[in-house]
Amino acid sequence: MWDFPLFPQSASTHAPKVDAVYIGLMIVSAAFTLSFAFFVLYFAVKYRRGSRADRSGIQDSNPIAEAVYITVPTLLGIGLFVWGALVYFELVSPPGDAVDIYVIGKQWMWKAQHPEGSKEINELHVPVGQPVRLVMTSQDVIHSFYIPAFRVKQDVLPGRYTTLWFQPTKVGRYRLFCAEYCGAEHSRMGGWVTVMEPSEYEEWLEGSSEQTGMAVAGEALFRQYHCSGCHGGNSTVKAPPLEGVFGGPVPLLNDPADPNSGVRIIQADERYLRDSILRPKDEVVAGYEPLMPSFEGQIPEEDMLKLVAYIKSIGRGRTTRPTTDRGMQDGEGAPSNITEIMGMGTGNGGDAR
Amino acid sequence: MSHEPQADDPRLVEESDPKLGYLGSDFSIKSWLLTTDHKRIALLYLASITFFFIFGGVAASLVRMELMTPRGDVFNAPDDYNRTFTIHGVFMVFFFLIPGVPAVLGNFLLPLMIGARDLAFPRINLLSWYIYMLGGLFTMYALVAGGVDTGWTFYTPYSTMFSNTQVIAAALGIFIVGFSSILTALNFIVTIHTMRAPGMTWLRLPLFIWAHYATSLIIVLGTPVLAITIVLVAVERVFRVGIFDPAYGGDPLLFQHLFWFYSHPAVYIMILPSFGVISEIVTAFARRKIFGYSFMAGALLAIAVLGFLVWGHHMFVSSQSMYAGLIFSVLSFLVAVPSGIKVFNWTATLYKGSVSFRTPMLYALGFIGLFTIGGLTGLVLSTMATDVHVHDTYFVVAHFHYIMVGGMVMAYLGGLHFWWPKMTGRMYSEFWGALSALTVFIGFNLTFFPQFILGYMGMPRRYYEYPEEFQVLNVMSTAGASILAVGYLMPLIYLPISLLIGKVANANPWAAYGLEWTTASPPPTHNFEEIPIVTGGPYDYELQDRADQQREVQEQGIV
């Protein structure tokens, strides 16, 4: 009964850094709390009514004291802010060699699929030492993917991709929770993350019944949803070719409806691929007519992830910048050589993307 | 043209028993329900807020009982648990914490402290109570008869498209009660601007008034945003218009931005009036001027302004832009500075004071300790790296209960005990008062301190069932909650009893400084026999002591 833990396990490269900030904050907090408690009690007792303590020279305010206790906490606060922000930056910047695993949240389970095809529910198997990046979306309400032992959490929203990365450091089984209230069975929406030796992980992947890789499955869907009719190599209709798109710069019209509105450059990430399939008229590649129909409501999230996996597989690879961050997409990562990308739209006056 | 003399007719004052003051002007139920006397309206609020507090408290007890064991047992289904914590959150936030101090203590004391006969709009004041009751009873009906399972935060698209509970009815109740807050706040602002007694300049206002002024500004500016948000939720839910649900072309983060744009400032609506209460109590029982008066008043206004600029710290893991997150994080650190000033100055006020430990002071000292812990643990939540880990866990639950329960409720009870003799003309039992303050303090820490540890361990909030390794700390928390409940039950018993058998209080039983103590206890219907003329700043206990000595010298002829 009394053998209970008071501090969470630490099993990722990120965890000790968060713990360090936390302990730093606790030391500062404890110092302030204890000194307040000390002075409040000391003054209250020393200057209790009727005591003979010296009460001469009372001041109603003291500009120096006030300046000190405005400046010191402010500087201390800024310092802690910077420290916390630096650790946070690492959390939102996955390394280039991270493996992508795809996660779908729905009331009330987590579904994961590995690029090699293996699927699992309320379980996630990952190799130790390997940076893993999760590309996540929800089929219904907002959920939040939370692994306390890794000190990582990310809300999972319907209608968009969010990402989360971690690098496990210890083999073992760790709890997985949904942290954002999502309805009746919220507290049961969780399971285990299993960190394995890489060799065991390979075995585990091979033992899966699903052996078709996601990109391969996505290629089949690419034909099934007739994407290849326009975007395929032998197409008579000219749409932007998709080879090399992912991870590269894409020139978009500033105003999707006006071909002369000028061009802005974005970095093609998972968010861009998804939105281009569902809402193609929102972001039109310069040099093409907005002819592509919307696939909104026609592609289940799981198929969508496979399509994305396929288009990624023929792309340039991922940039290390966080892809979820909508605040930084515009004009970010603009290439130095604009003409090179403009060459992508060789078929001027062509058709849909 | 003949008319009946009304309850607020000054002629009635002379007929009534002067010992009972405003309480004795008329005893009929009608005279209470149609009163425009701010003091009687404050008591109407006191009764109704206590009722809703008990209601929310019972829900909290059920939640804590459920969490004694990892598996569900008290409730038959998770749905019932979810409805219960929603009742707890909605009632405590919207019907207790937000109106608590302003509607009861503010209503009663604001005119008395600035030397006015009433608030600027006495009828609007009564109207705001009726709106409050309408909203409260309506929400209560919706939450008990139908039930709502969204939590008090109503996050979309769960609340708009997925929950099949009475979301719209509950939202309507909250929408209604918002107008009650707005009317009270407007009333306060106009009263403070226009009805101060001669000589009561802005820098002579007690900090209680400054606190209510800052709070009123936040209410007037923030509450309409909540109303808009609620309307948008209802529109999406009823007409399936895509506002928040991406399946219909909406944006779920938009809701969070709108919601927290009100709900973070709402935290300051809950706590700023408490700062005012604590400043009054600490000065009265340390018998000293508040240390750094102008910094204290400035800090209140600084918090009110900065409070509008930090809402995004609720959304660090929501997928909002990381650059936005940075700004919100640094601003959250900055808002801690004026809060720190408050605690520093209360502590400094004790220095070289003459401190006595009566019940209100015990509550106030408890407040300083608990608010300090609550405020400092807020830093863990403003720091992005640590917030990612503890967001939506029991760490957050513990943090805001330290601010709300450890802060606001302690200050509310302290203030109630401090001004109880003024409100009722009776003294309560000092023994039971001190015992309740101590019990609440101990029970509170036992309840909520384990939750910080639980949160860092990773236990998410709003969990009906939880892993077994969290049980010991949860049992501790529930055990503490039972002590806390006893602490809250005590004043519910000895305060009413004091009305019958309590010692009769004189005008100024604490020898405190301030206009409210210069008039009778309980005050006459129109507060002051003569409108006072103010010649100095607040909390001038030195002056008071000298005046007392002089009077003694004159009366007793001692040279």
N-to-C CA distance of chain A: 63 Å
Termini distance of chain B?
62 Å
Helical stretch tally of chain A: 8
- Identify the CATH class of chain B: Mainly Alpha
Mean pLDDT of chain A: 85
- Count of all domains of chain B: 1
The CATH top-level class label of the largest domain in chain A = Mainly Alpha
Task: Give a description of the structure.
The complex is a heterodimer of chains A (353) and B (559). With 353 residues, chain A is α+β, with helices and mostly antiparallel strands. Chain A contains 8 helices and 12 strands. Chain A has 3 domains: 14-51 and 58-92, no CATH class; 99-206, Immunoglobulin-like (Sandwich), CATH 2.60.40; 214-345, Cytochrome Bc1 Complex, Chain D, domain 2, CATH 1.10.760. Chain A has a 5-stranded mixed sheet with strand order 3-2-1-5-8, covered by helices on one side. Chain A has a 5-stranded mixed sheet with strand order 4-10-9-6-7. In chain A, a hairpin with a 2-residue loop joins strand 1 (99-106) and strand 2 (109-113). In chain A, helix 1 runs antiparallel to helix 2 and helix 4 (214-224) packs across helix 7 (301-313). Chain A is elongated and about 100 Å long. Chain A starts with 13 loop residues before the first helix and ends in an 11-residue tail after the last helix. The model of chain A is unreliable at 320-353 (pLDDT under 50). Chain B is mainly alpha-helical. Chain B has helices at 10-15, 29-33, 38-66, 78-97, 100-114, 122-146, 158-162, 167-194, 207-239, 252-286, 293-306, 322-350, 359-382, 384-390, 394-424, 430-457, 471-501, 541-556. In chain B, helix 10 runs antiparallel to helix 13. Chain B is globular, with a radius of gyration of 24 Å. Chain B starts with 9 loop residues before the first helix and ends with a helix. The relative contact order of chain B is 0.11. The interface between A and B is large, with 92 and 98 residues.
